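TA notes, week 10

Several of you asked for a full example with nothing omitted. So below is the full record: structure tokens for the whole chain, then the designed sequence directly under it. When grading your own attempts, check the secondary structure regions first.
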């Protein structure tokens, strides 16, 4: 994995500017709701049949809101799944990556977007 910061705040500011400050909060809420539905399913699901598609969705969603570390973890898992190695995907690391990214994002958002 690349040596990067967990949240790409430049991307987050760019997105806020694209949608407008008034709609940005709604977009963040929608993002978190949709991503957490998939994350919750991954936490409780033993069947990895749809893992590649789930990780692809999570990767794209994460990139759109600047969750770069989480996106990288999802990409690694997606690649393994695409190669028929879904059983080797470290779901624990992916889920922990999401939890850490979410906490960092919510804790730092006000300060990072104060401009």
């Amino acid at each position: 994995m690349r040596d990067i910061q967990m949240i790409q705040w430049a991307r987050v500011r760019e997105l806020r500017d694209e949608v407008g400050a008034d709609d940005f909060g709604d977009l963040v809420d929608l993002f978190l709701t949709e991503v957490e539905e998939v994350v919750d399913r991954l936490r409780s699901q033993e069947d990895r049949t749809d893992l590649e598609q789930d990780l692809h969705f999570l990767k794209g969603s994460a990139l759109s809101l600047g969750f770069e570390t989480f996106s990288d973890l999802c990409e690694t898992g997606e690649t393994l799944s695409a190669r028929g190695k879904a059983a080797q995907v470290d779901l624990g690391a992916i889920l922990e990556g999401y939890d850490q990214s979410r906490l960092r994002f919510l804790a730092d958002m006000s300060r990072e977007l104060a401009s």
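The chain has one domain: 9-42+50-112. Use that as a sanity check on your answer.
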